Amino acid sequence: TEYQTILVERRGRVGIITLNRPKALNALNSELMNEVVGVVKEFDVDEAIGAIVITGSEKAFAAGADIKEMSTKTYAEVANQQFFGAWDELARTRTPIVAAVTGYALGGGCELAMLCDFIIAGDNAVFGQPEINLGVIPGIGGSQRLTRAVGKAKAMDMILTGRNMKVDEAERAGLVSRVFPKEEALAKAIEIAEVIASKSLIASALAKEAVNRAFESGLTEGVRAERGLFYSTFATDDQTEGMAAFVEKRDPNFTHR
Ligand code: HXC
Fold it and tell me: What ipTM, to 2 d.p.?
C-alpha cells in the first residue's frame, strides 16, 4: 500500500510506523491520523505482529496537530465531524504499542505518544501541551493522560502555562519509561518491542488490559478484573507451553493460542 504521511515496515514480529511529514515536523493532519489508525488496526488483528512501534524523526516525533489545517475550522465543523476522534481507536488495540520519541512531542504529538502503552525517549525529547498559546486546549486525551502520568501539579502547570518539559523532568515525573542517546532511541525501542513480541500475544494483550484497568478504575475493581484475566490465561496453550518449558528447562515456543 502507498502512504502519503507515514512509512510502514515489518521487522520480524514488530510493526514499525514512522510519521513522515518532515517539512511540517510531522504535524498531525487528518490524512496522517487516518493512515496511522488504519495501519495500527491492521497490525492489531495480525497474529504475525506482536508489538508496534510508533516513531517520528530525530528532530520531531510530532510538533502537534496541524495548525494550518485547524486554523479556519468552526465549532460546528470540529464538533459535527468529530474532529480527531479516530485517534481514540489506538486506545482500543490489544497489541502493545511503544512510542519512540526523539525531539518535539508537543500538543497532539505528546497526546499521540501518551496514547501508546509506554514511551521510550531520546535524550533530546521535549514534551508539552502548548495548546493554550493558540487559544485552545488539548483534544486527544492530553488533559486526562498527562494528569494520570505526571500528577495534577505538573499537568496543570504545563497545560495552563504551555511550557515544555525536557526529557530529564519527563523521566523523573514518570512520563517516559527509559531514556537513551537520541541516535539509539529508535533501535532500543525496536529491541524492546522485539522482547515484547517474543512473548505470548494473548498474554501480552491480557497484561496490557490489566495495567490499563489500573489507569481507568479503582483498586478493588482493578484487582477483580486482573484476577479474571489471570484465570483466563489458563485456557491458553501458551500457559501450558510456558510453564512446561520452565519445568523442562528449555525456551518456550509460544503459538499465540
Ligand atoms: C503545522 C507546523 C506545526 C504544527 C511546525 N510546523 N509545527 N505546521 N502545525 N503544529 C511547521 C512550521 O510551520 C514550519 O513550516 C515547519 O513545520 C518547521 O517549523 P519551525 O517552526 O520553522 O521550526 P522551529 O523553529 O525549529 O520550531 C519548532 C517548534 C515550532 C518549536 C516545534 O514549530 C512550534 O512551536 N510548533 C507548533 C507547536 C504547537 O503549538 N503544537 C500544538 C498544536 S495544537 P513552514 O512551512 O512554515 O516553514 C494541538 C492540538 C491538539 O496539537 C488537539 C487537537 C484535537
Answer: 0.97
